[in-house]
Amino acid sequence: MTTDRQTVLLLADTHGQVHERILELAENADIIIHAGDIGDPGILDMLAARAAQLVAVRGNNDVPSKWPPTSPIDPNSLPLTADIQLPGGMVVVEHGDRANPVATRHAVLRQRHPQARLILYGHSHRQTVDQSETPWVVNPGAAGRSRTYGGSACILLSAGRRRWRLTAHQFPLGKSKK
Questions:
Q1: How confident is the model at residue 173 (pLDDT cuts 50, 70, 90)?
Q2: Degrees, nearest 5: CA angle 54-129-58
Q3: In angstroms, rounded to a whole number, what is the distance separating the alpha carbons of residues 41 and 16?
Q4: Residues 98-141: tens digit of each pLDDT
Q5: Which tens digits make up the pLDDT trace of 67-77?
Q6: Nearest 5°: phi and psi at 176?
Q7: Domain encompassing residue 168
Q8: Of 118, 98, 122, which is closest to residue 37 (Cα–Cα)?
C-alpha cells in the first residue's frame, strides 16, 4: 500500500543486537528496511513488531553457521536484493558485499540499479549519504554494536510523491537489545 507520505527506517549490520534508540525510532516507521548482517532472527521479530512492513535482505554474515542453531528462519531463505515501491520512487536494497571494488562501490550500485531513486546497502558499517547523483546511495551505518565508528546508526527516510528527505542518526553505545 502506498500513501502520500511514508516514514521508512533504514538500517543494517545489527549482528544480533540493535540499539534501544533505534528501536524507539522504529515505533514511528511505516516501513523498516534492513540491509543485511542481521545476525539473529530475533532482531527481525523485534523490528516486525514495530512497523506495518519489514523488508530484510541477507548479508554475507547471515549464514546458518553464524545464526543460532535453533533458529526458526533459515538465513539462506532471505533474498539478496529487494525492491520497495514508495511514494515518489523505489528503494532497492542489497547488502553491498557483492559491489566491489570498494573504491567504485557507489558507481557499481548505480549501474546495477538505475531504476531506483535510492539504493540502500550495508556491509562497511560506515554511515554514508551520497546524493551527488540519482539514484542516491545510502549506507545507514551499523545499527548494532559491532564496528559502529562512533555509535549505533540508522537513517530515517521521509518519502513523499515529490520530495524525499533523509535524516541520519547516530547514538553513543550504551543500551542495546537482543
A1: confident
A2: 35
A3: 8
A4: 999 999 999 999 999 999 999 999 999 999 999 999 999 999 99
A5: 998 888 999 99
A6: -140, 160
A7: 5-177
A8: 122
The grid coordinates of residue 126 equal 560506515
CA 96 – CA 128 distance, rounded (Å): 13
Task: Pull the grid cell for residue 92.
Answer: 532497492
Q: Which residue has the cell 518519502?
A: 159
Domain harbouring 94, CATH code = 3.60.21.10
Query: How many domains is the chain partitioned into structurally?
Result: 1
| Phi (first) and psi of residue 106, to 5 degrees | -65, -40
DSSP string, the chain: ---SEEEEEEEB--TT-EEHHHHHHHTT-SEEEE-S----HHHHHHHHTTSSEEEE---TT-SGGGS-TT-SS-GGGS-SEEEEEETTEEEEEE-STTS--GGGHHHHHHHH-TT-SEEE--SS---EEE-SSSSEEEE--BSSSSS-SSSEEEEEEEEESS-EEEEEEEE-S--EE-
What is the number of residues in the chain? 178
- d(Cα 37, Cα 61) in Å, to the nearest integer? 5
CA 3, 139, 127, 104 torsion-angle sign: negative
